[in-house]
Write a structure and sequence with these properties.
Elements: H1 8-14, H2 41-48, H3 63-75, H4 87-98, E1 104-108, H5 113-125, E2 129-133, H6 139-144, E3 149-155, H7 167-177, E4 181-184, H8 190-194
Parallel strand pairs: 1-2, 1-3, 3-4
Length: 196
């Protein structure tokens, strides 16, 4: 069975992992190691230069986390995924990889307080600005876009109002501007987002 023919439930249980060839174990092992052994100095050099895939240090990659990332990518029909230790880390990595000093993002103003502080206070220390708009009218996003805007941002269920924006309209605005639309999906399950 190919990835394309596997159902959601099968992907949720098996994507990103093959049974252990030695033991036949089907469960994903939990690797608790922090560091890994290198075959030789050349192998280590290739890993650190990102010329060869493999594990260097658990803070950067871990076989258990790798299965999770591959599984999420398969469930979302994506090309890859990245697991982080917290939602705030994921938000920071997403924005920091899209925007730099002098750039800005446009965000819905219905946000978790920590996200608002990240965008308003922390990112501004890096020279990344944030504009906050009322998400009830998708055109507010379009009006706030400037030449330096690198992303539009919203939560799938805005905090604290639990308001749900018109995702398609905002995505169309982002795509017309040639920028990504980043959505934090903290509250609903992935299953719900797949069908919104």
């Amino acid at each position: 069975m190919t990835k394309a023919t596997k159902g959601f439930e099968t992907l949720a249980v098996h994507a990103g992992q093959k049974a252990d060839p030695v033991t036949g174990s089907r469960a994903v092992p939990i690797y608790q190691t922090t560091s890994y052994v290198f075959k030789d100095t050349g192998h280590a050099a290739n890993l650190f230069a990102l010329q060869e895939p493999g594990n260097i240090y658990t803070r950067m990659m871990n076989p258990t986390t790798d299965v999770l990332e591959q599984r999420v990518a398969a469930l979302e029909n994506g090309v890859g995924a990245l697991a982080t230790a917290s939602g705030q880390a994921a938000e920071f990595l997403a924005i920091a990889n899209l925007a730099g000093a002098g750039d800005n993002i446009v965000s819905a103003n219905s946000l978790y307080g920590g996200t608002y502080n990240l965008f308003k206070a922390t990112l501004s220390r890096f020279g990344i600005g944030a504009s906050f708009v009322d998400p009830s009218d998708p055109e507010n996003f379009r009006r706030a876009i400037t030449p330096g805007t690198k992303a539009l941002y919203a939560e799938s269920s805005g905090n604290p109002k639990l308001d749900v924006i018109d995702f398609q309209a905002v995505a169309d605005i982002a795509h017309a501007a040639g920028i990504p639309f980043v959505v934090d999906n903290t509250v609903p399950t992935p299953f719900l987002v797949l069908y919104i």
